[in-house]
Amino acid sequence: MKNFNPADNIQDLQYFGEFGGVNPSISDSSTYTFLSAKTMFDTFEGNMEGCYLYSRHSSPSNLYLDQALAAMEGTESANVSASGMGAITPTLLQLCGAGEHIVSSRTIYGGTYAFLKNFTPRMGIKTTFVDITN
Q1: So what's the pLDDT on residue 15?
Q2: DSSP label at residue 4
Q3: Which of 63, 64, 90, 129 has a CA 20 to 30 Å removed from the CA of 26?
Q4: Residues near 114 by Cβ (< 8 Å), separated by ≥ 6?
Q5: 43 CB neighbour count, 10 Å cutoff
Q6: Taking a C-beta distance cutoff of 8 angstroms, is the pair 9, 64 a contact?
Q7: Nearest to residue 25, comparing CAs of 63, 66, 79?
Q8: How far apart are CA 129 and CA 101, in angstroms?
C-alpha cells in the first residue's frame, strides 16, 4: 500500500464543506436526486452513481476519510460512522452470532443497552448485564 499524504489530495477537498461550495452530501442527496421515480429506482438498485441517501450511511467526506484512514493504517479499507450506535451495532454483530453470550456493564450508553436488551435476543444473542460498581 502506498504512503498516504493528505496534501496529495488537497484538490479533492475544495468540494467539501468549508473548503468551498456546497457539501456534496447535500447537493447529491436524495432530496435533490429523487425528482423522478426512475432516478429513485436506479438509486435503490445501486445503478445511480454519486447519490448519498443519508449522510450517516455515506457521504463524499466519509468516503474520503475512509480512504485516508485505510492508507494511513496500511489496511484494505476503513469505515467511519456518524453516530456511536452506527459504530457499535455493526461491531457487535460482526463479533457475535446466534447462540453467543455477551456480558456487559449495566451502566453502558442507553442506546447500546436498549440494543442488547431488546434487539440482540431476536438474533439469538444473549446478554447478561452486571453491576461493576462494587
Answers
A1: 47
A2: P
A3: 90
A4: none
A5: 18
A6: yes
A7: 63
A8: 11
Amino acid at 23: N
Q: What is the DSSP string of 45-63?
A: TT--TT-BS-TTT--HHHH
> Over its length of 134 residues, how does the chain's per-residue pLDDT go in tens digits?
566 665 565 555 444 444 444 445 444 554 555 666 777 677 666 666 655 555 555 667 777 888 888 998 899 988 887 788 888 998 999 999 999 999 999 898 899 999 999 999 999 999 999 998 76
pLDDT for residue 54: 57
Inter-residue contact 68 to 3 (CB < 8 Å):
no
CA atoms within 13 A on the CB side of 47: 6
Closest by alpha carbon to 64, among 48, 47, 44, 78? 78
pLDDT reported for residue 115: 94
First to last CA, the chain: 48
* CA separation for the pair 92, 104 (Å, rounded): 12
